[in-house]
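FORM 12-B: Structure-to-Sequence Request
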């Protein structure tokens, strides 16, 4: 029996469509996946674009690698990755459907003082190049915002990609332990295959561990696969001796799990066990933890944050015109007097002025406020972890004012906080074909 064509085809097709709607899957391979909440299925190429953004933000500075890589070649690869990411995102979103985002709007506004200050060329022509890079970076994020729907898709991709980066650091350690832990960095782990600094590896390890732990608590990952990710990442974090990443991981997890305590029994159990383990470690391994935390530094060196305080004092004491105070001196390599600034707020003040500081502060406040207003859930907990981690790391790491992994972390948080009902409008449906009225005498003749 073929069924009534006026009712949309055979009964088997109608039943299949009903089952597809029940499990939230598209009806067929060519079915339209757009709806009021945006696309229901994220294309695989979106993960490729995100991987290219991760590659672009790895940077080109670090220790000497086993196979010497010219910095110009590394910069060519990273910039080529960004251009390719923008082209792929544009091909995926050719109709330019974007999701309204206060996070991306504030980042786009941050580009204004960057361009204004960079046009004076106080930081050289490299400032204009960095503005172009930031514009392409933001444009790619705007194009990808179409697939921000509050799901864990970008979280899983984020974990996989940075675990691959950590795998390269681990491979370099196995191939050449001397090159991976050079005396120049005090025996701390660096990237021996790709130039990565200890704070970079520590940051990636902390983010991977934190997000994976939250997925396990939310029962979105099995314990075996999570152990394979968490244990090696913790080992690499310990080998980097990165205090900021460690504190960011602990405080970020404390805040994220705390947001789930009232609604999740697993979160309560994990919280209790974590507190007990912390107490035991503090009592039984106090001297070892103190030695690891000090990294063999003197009290004076530790108090001025490994020389960072001297750079900060010199930056704040430098004379500046009114224009430089408002808009900065232009995007640079995040250094002052040839030394790294290592503070996001002072780096933004130096490059984008007080205007940039106001925009970056508004960005974090908006994300944090939206996270607090959301009901308790696993995506909200992951967003709280990422926001708190970036806020803590901003004290000793630069990156909130330019294309960096920290902006990618915050972009993942923004995708988790996106309300499913505020996506792009669905495409217009084709007008219904009016039925042909059949006279009664003709129906009786049939």
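FORM 12-B RESPONSE
SEQUENCE OUT:
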């Amino acid at each position: 029996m073929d069924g009534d064509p006026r009712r949309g085809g055979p009964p088997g097709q109608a039943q299949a469509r009903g089952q597809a709607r029940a499990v939230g899957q598209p009806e067929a391979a060519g079915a339209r996946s757009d709806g009021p909440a945006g696309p229901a299925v994220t294309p695989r190429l979106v993960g490729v674009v995100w991987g290219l953004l991760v590659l672009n933000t790895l940077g080109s500075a670090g220790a000497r690698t086993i196979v010497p890589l010219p910095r110009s070649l590394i910069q060519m690869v990273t910039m080529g990755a960004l251009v390719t990411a923008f082209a792929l995102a544009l091909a995926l979103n050719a109709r330019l459907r974007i999701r309204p985002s206060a996070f991306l709007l504030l980042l786009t506004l941050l580009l204004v003082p960057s361009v204004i200050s960079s046009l004076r060329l106080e930081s050289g022509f490299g400032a204009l190049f960095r503005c172009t890079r930031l514009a392409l970076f933001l444009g790619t994020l705007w194009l990808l915002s179409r697939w921000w729907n509050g799901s864990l898709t970008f979280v899983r991709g984020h974990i996989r990609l940075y675990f691959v980066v950590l795998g390269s650091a681990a491979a370099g350690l196995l191939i050449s332990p001397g090159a991976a832990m050079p005396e120049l960095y005090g025996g701390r782990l660096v990237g021996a295959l790709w130039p990565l600094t200890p704070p970079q590896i520590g940051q990636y390890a902390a983010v991977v561990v934190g997000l994976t732990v939250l997925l396990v608590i939310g029962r979105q990952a099995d314990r075996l696969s999570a152990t394979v990710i968490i244990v090696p990442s913790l080992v690499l974090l310990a080998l980097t001796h990165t205090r900021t990443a460690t504190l960011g991981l602990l405080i970020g997890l404390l805040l994220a799990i705390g947001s789930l305590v009232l609604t999740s029994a697993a979160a309560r159990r994990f919280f209790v066990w974590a507190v007990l383990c912390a107490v035991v470690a503090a009592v039984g391994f106090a001297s070892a933890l103190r030695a690891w935390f000090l990294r063999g530094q003197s009290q004076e060196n530790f108090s001025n944050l490994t020389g960072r305080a001297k750079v900060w004092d010199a930056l704040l004491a430098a004379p500046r015109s009114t224009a430089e105070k408002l808009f900065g001196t232009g995007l640079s390599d995040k250094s002052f007097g040839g030394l790294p600034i290592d503070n996001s707020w002072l780096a933004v003040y130096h490059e984008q002025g007080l205007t940039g500081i106001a925009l970056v502060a508004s960005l974090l406040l908006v994300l944090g406020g939206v996270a607090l207003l959301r009901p308790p859930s696993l995506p909200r907990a992951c967003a709280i972890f990422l926001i708190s981690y970036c806020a803590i790391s901003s004290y000793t790491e630069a990156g909130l004012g330019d294309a960096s992994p920290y902006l990618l972390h915050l972009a993942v948080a923004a995708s988790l906080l996106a309300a499913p009902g505020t996506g792009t409008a669905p495409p217009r449906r084709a007008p219904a074909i009016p039925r042909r009225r059949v006279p009664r005498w003709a129906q009786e003749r049939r």
